[in-house]
Design goal:
Layout: H1 3-37, H2 40-71, H3 75-108, H4 119-140, H5 143-173, H6 178-210
Helix pairs in contact: 1-2, 1-3, 1-4, 2-3, 3-6, 4-5, 4-6, 5-6
């Protein structure tokens, strides 16, 4: 296959990845909006869209395998294709965590929120920003920007610990709040996991550019 044809196929694959990234980012925003407004219609649409995201992820995966199997890409091209494959998987899993927010809204029914949402929307905003930064770093082949994405995950973790401490106090002071507190805790936990997944994407960017596999998303000790 001529080089220009191969590059076109690779560009098409990247564009599909960016489309998947856009769809995934929208699920984060819609998940938190549904939680804030208790909008079960929005929550249902979020859950339904997960199938579309899954189909695009598998289409990307199939095309990545085909390029690797049939075109004998150079080492740098191969790293990029592998990174696309792994990033697509992370994006699909991020969308799963966002879908969980919709499921929490459905599960809550008409039950009022335990407290106004402050830190959880902030976590979502940072996740969306991190994801945009990670995908931009991949497009620009910027390993330093990919590393910077990983460093921002600490802010997500700090907010999660803050939410956890606050909700634990609610539950300790009044056991009748346990169910409502746990719903919010599950929501925050899903956003914390989204931050971890985006960190994984940052690691894939570094690999695509440098060829080095670095584990930056290490387990952190919980505060006492």
């Amino acid at each position: 296959m001529p080089r220009d044809t191969f590059e076109k196929l690779l560009t098409d694959l990247k564009n599909q990845l960016l489309e998947l990234g856009t769809m995934t980012s929208q699920t984060i925003a819609k998940g938190v909006d549904a939680l804030k407004t208790r909008d079960r219609v929005m929550a249902q649409s979020l859950i339904a869209r997960d199938q579309e995201i899954n189909r695009l992820r598998y289409a990307i995966e199939e095309q990545a395998y085909e390029l690797m199997a049939t075109q004998q890409p150079l080492a740098s091209d191969l790293r990029e294709i592998i990174a696309i494959l792994l990033i697509a998987i992370e994006l699909e899993r991020i969308a799963d965590h966002a879908k969980n927010l919709g499921e929490i809204v459905i599960h809550m029914g008409d039950e009022p929120l335990l407290k106004p949402l402050i830190d959880i929307p902030r976590m979502a905003e940072i996740c969306e920003s991190m994801l945009a930064q990670a995908l931009d770093a991949f497009v620009r082949r910027d390993a330093a920007a990919g590393r910077a994405v990983c460093e921002r995950d600490d802010v997500i973790d700090q907010l999660y610990q803050q939410v956890l401490r606050e909700l634990l106090l609610f539950m300790l002071e009044d056991t009748r709040t346990v169910t409502r507190a746990m719903n919010l805790l599950f929501a925050a936990h899903n956003l914390e996991r989204i931050g971890d997944r985006i960190t994984n994407i940052g690691e894939r960017v570094i690999y695509a550019v440098t060829g080095k596999l670095e584990e930056l998303n290490t387990e952190k000790e919980l505060p006492e």
